[in-house]
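Per-record layout

source: Gryllotalpicola reticulitermitis
name: Phosphodiester glycosidase family protein
length: 404
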Amino acid sequence: MRLRQPSAETGLDRELSRQPRAVHAALAALVIVVVIVIAWLGISLAGALTAPGTDPTSARVAEWGRQHGLGWAVTGMEQAQYQLSKPKTGGVVAGGLPTIGKSSARTRPNASASQPATGHATATGQATTTAPPPPLAPLVHTTTLAGEGAWHDLFAVHGRTAARVAFLRPDSLHTSYYVQVIWMDPRLVSFTLYPGYKVPGAVAGAANRIPTAKLGSVLATFNSGFLMTDARGGYWQNGHAVVPLRTGAASMVFTTDGHVRVESWPGGAPGPGIAAVRQNLDPLIQHGVISPAATQANAAAWGRTVGNLAYVWRSGIGVRADGSIVSVVGPAMDVETLANVLHDAGAVTAMELDINPSWTNYITYTHPSSTTAMPTLLPPANPYVHADRYLQPSSRDFVAVYPR
């Protein structure tokens, strides 16, 4: 009978037999971790998609990606999408420029149209107003378009025109598009900043929608700035800095008496009489001079995504020498175009607000009753924005215009 010889590799064999079990255990643990991560991401994304408001799905996914470390991917996709869908050059405005007639907006519940505006009255008790600006000179000189640059009454306060709108093509290259320029009289209207529940987040004492008590008096709303992570600036309201303010940043400054100004932030904490400060990027116009960076591919000044040289939907706000406010919203603008339109509208200080059609808007309201607001988006048509955006919780901060 042959005896089995003991093997010198017996211990090694046992070790090798244990390795597959260890590998399987490690793989199982990795699978569990991956499943947990995917489940968490799925729940997180589902929460973003079902959050309150009217934000389009594409915008919700993009912002969710940026908030979860995927900004590089979102930016890459936005740049690729832009290359595929650049605004066309040449052509004519289909149907011509819109015309808007005078509208009578209720000044406040139970208020008489003949009641004088508070804070700005003459010796006779009649409200004083700011002189309307002259018509805007068209920026396209090769062709003419009926009504281009002419002002149309937009809404009234106490029987006086408080806002006007003009439409014009943004440059001689994109002649089939037009943008809106809104002029607002600070002697007849006041401005309030509302935070979004995501941008910048909750602020004590401030609503993220038009309050019910204000539905019967709100005249207009318009978008604010970038995500705070991209704005290169801060947000301060009701005595609280949600995001620290940056010295030199372009700033919308809201006073406690309802005025708004645009300035380069001088530094330090806001002083008495300031209700809110919303910063976004660098100043676009200062002392009547357009920033030289507006013509450069300067991501540090104007933000990343598609870049400041891309022609996309943009919005901006400026202040004229007489204190009146001008707002610009529309497609096919790069930063230089936006600056040119604001400058030609008389802005001596100005800043860019937001970009892309998901966020840029100017909405007016009429009032079928003293407690309701009927919203209307100003043209040009923006299919990504619902007119009732600010009548429900808003994810992004915005500005509301009220009678003074």
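summary: Residues 152-403 form one domain. Residues 102-126 have pLDDT under 50 and may be disordered.
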